Amino acid sequence: MAAKKQYTAIVLGASGLVGKALLYQLCQDDKYSNITCLLRSPLAQRDYHDPLNKIQAIVIDFDYLQDYQGYFTVDHVYCCLGTTIKKAGSKKAFRRIDFEFVHVAAQLARAQRASSFVWISSVGANAKSNNFYLRVKGELENAILTMPQLDNAAAVRPSVLLGDRKEYRQGEAIAANILKLISPIMLGPLAKYRPVHAQQVAAQMISLQVFK
User: Fold this and answer.
1) Which residues have a Cβ under 8 Å from the Cβ of 34 and sit 6 or more positions away?
2) Residue 111 parent element (H or E)
3) Of 12, 58, 154, 184, which cross-links 208 as Cys (Cβ 3.0–4.6 Å)?
């Protein structure tokens, strides 16, 4: 019997809410043999469970992400990078992280011929939106999904995320509490606006990758 193929992956943003959930699931997934994480700061051991030593964690300066192109020679690229305008400090800084860094990651995935590229967008993403956050997310979707020679690119579009964050985000916490209360009546077109657990988003990201 032929040995089952194993896959390699790179994760950007593994220390965030979805990133941590994703890293946990990848470590438990026997389809993956090696997981490279590019991070701003070292992973805290309490944040992941890696009994088979799959993780290679590398601290980098994302302003020079293009210098780490060689690490993108993997099967699957997962991009969980993202912030808020408040945390970034300005719209310009927010766009730098949520658009430019993710766009560069997609270009590196293409250059190294990764099998697939999956990233986190947002429900309501629209390049023509009057909302700056949703407009940036929509512009990024347009830029990546029309990128030539980038095979199998896909975005997940979660609503408000549920889970334990390192930092407290008051606006998201209030929205999550309200949406949890009314979630049972959010049916049909409104269902996509239900709050979603980080673990569910991570599982969806894995399901969108190409295994061949």
Assistant:
1) 8, 9, 54, 56, 74
2) helix 102-111
3) 154
The catalytic residue among 4, 133, 168, 192 is: 133
Residue 151 structural domain: 7-166+197-208
Is residue 2 one of the residues assigned to a domain? no
Structural contact between residues 196 and 157, judged by C-beta atoms closer than 8 angstroms: no
CATH number for the domain spanning 153: value is 3.40.50.720
End-to-end CA distance of the chain: 17
CB 146 within 8 A of CB 108: no
Tens digits of residue pLDDT in 33-44: 999 999 999 888
pLDDT of 194 reads 65
Q: What are the DSSP E strand ranges found in 98-156?
A: 116-120, 153-156
Which of the following is catalytic: 7, 20, 68, 137? 137
Is 185 within the bounds of a domain? no
Look-up: residue for tokens 């980038």? 150
Pairing of strands 161-162, 153-156: unpaired
Annotation marks residue 133 as catalytic: yes
Contact between 117 and 82 (Cβ < 8 Å): no
